[in-house]
Amino acid sequence: MNENKEETTGRPVLTVTALNGIIKDILEGAFPAIWVEGEISNFKIYTSGHIYFTLKDADSQIRGVMWKGSRKTLRFTPKDGDKVIITGRISVYNKRGEYQLVADSMEPKGLGALQAAFEELKKKLAAEGLFDQSRKKPLPAIAWSVGIVTSPKGAAVRDMIRTLNRRFPGLRIILNPSPVQGEGAAAKIARAIEELNEYGQVDVIIAGRGGGSLEDLWAFNEEVVARAIAASKIPVVSAVGHEVDFTIADFVADARASTPTAAAEIVAPEKVALEAQVAELSRKLRLEMRNKLEADSQFVDDLMGRLGATARNMVELHRHKLEAMRGGLRGQNPANKVRMRKERLAQLSTAMIRALTRLAGVKRLQAKTALDRLAAIRPRTLITTRKVELTRMEESLSRSMNLRLRNDRNLIDKSAAALAAYDPAKVLDRGYAIVTRAADGRIVKTLADLAPGAKVSIRVSDGAAGATVDGKPKGGLKQGELF
Amino acid sequence: MSEKVEKEIKFEAALKRLEDIVSQLEKGDMDLEVSMKLFEEGVGTVRRLQKKLEEAERKIEKLVKDGGAFKTEQMAGPEGDAAPF
Q1: CA within 20 to 30 Å of A410's CA: A352, A426, A456, B39, which one?
Q2: Residues in chain B within 8 Å Cβ distance of A286
Q3: Residue (of A305, A291, A308) closest to A370 by Cα position
């Protein structure tokens, strides 16, 4: 390129650009496609979208970049400390004379082996039919109690419980804690699912954990967990928080949620919605019944009106007939016949009106009974109504009692006056005397009671004195002559 | 299966029955007496449904093995920050 012979000495001297150009050609030509493993550090995503990082091992490091366009292939979010395998090439940045590793793709180290195991198990279980849609149990429409298999620590359990309680306050939640990563976690998760089945008092099981690396989630890719989920009589929702793909548990589970929170949302009925549904039905129920009663009472009123009209018409009709008859019979001494007809008509009218009244009464009573029952079904209203009634009754009772007392008092006063007027002592005060016969004590009222010489007793206001009748009694005293 | 599941089915069935009752009343071609019976049944059903929704106790339990059988132990709620969550 820019290779010039130095003018004075003739030595071949390179410019920096030329040198870097040569290095670039050599390096890039030598490493067009390589796999490198190492640990990520200084991981940074620039606003441009490119990712810059350093890949290192115990003794060495190399700068690395992943261009924005390659990020699509990333199936996890790398972070500092992650051990990864990078597929890429070496690139030289002329301007700075630096070389770097350009990553075309990146996968967590160990993924290959895990991935192979995953694919193998997936194939095996799929062949057994464990993932078949027909095997999947429907989730309960309303779960009254939820079993949870997860770690008692960490965000997952908190998220699930929070979400369950938000959607259905008071929902029964039964946690069967289990480690969700590390040695033996898979067997413990499987056992926890079995235990909830043995316990039996849950409507649905959520088995899961929060997000993590593929290794962290691995327990949910193990056969023992898959088998436990498949064997569960209670529907199982898998809830493994993961950005990458599915776990085996997701394939076997009766429903799959992408996060613990989402699982809780799938599982928990929304109490508010249920309450609203019941309230709406209740409202409709009352509305319909009221309509029905109103329609019925209107019907009764209509009926009454029509019956009344019919009755009047019939009476009219009979009256006309009667008039006609009376006219026709005039002059033929028809009085008896007319009277008979009249009586018959009166009887009929009375009977008819009685029947109509009875019918109306029955209908009214029916409507009233219905209304009473309607009222009874709303006890608070009824109590209020009854209270008002009671108050009214009390008032009316005390009113009538007062009236009664007043009447009684009047009567007593009057009687007392009357009695006073009849008190014989009063009469004697006014100068009258009571004469009784000494023989038999009878009061002398007429002359016939007085024989000449008979002994009598004369009672006056302050005492009595004996006397003897002398002479012949003389009649003829007229009313009024006394005074 | 479990008594819980039975309860759920009853709730669902009761809800369904309530819907039936309402739609029958909506048709409105029934005798008053029959309507009243249905209405009373409906109100009873509403009460049962509401009671069921209200009776859920807010609790979080932990499954523990007690000899051969299982039982549950009360746990603190997630809102209590002293809880193991």
Answers
A1: A426
A2: 43
A3: A291
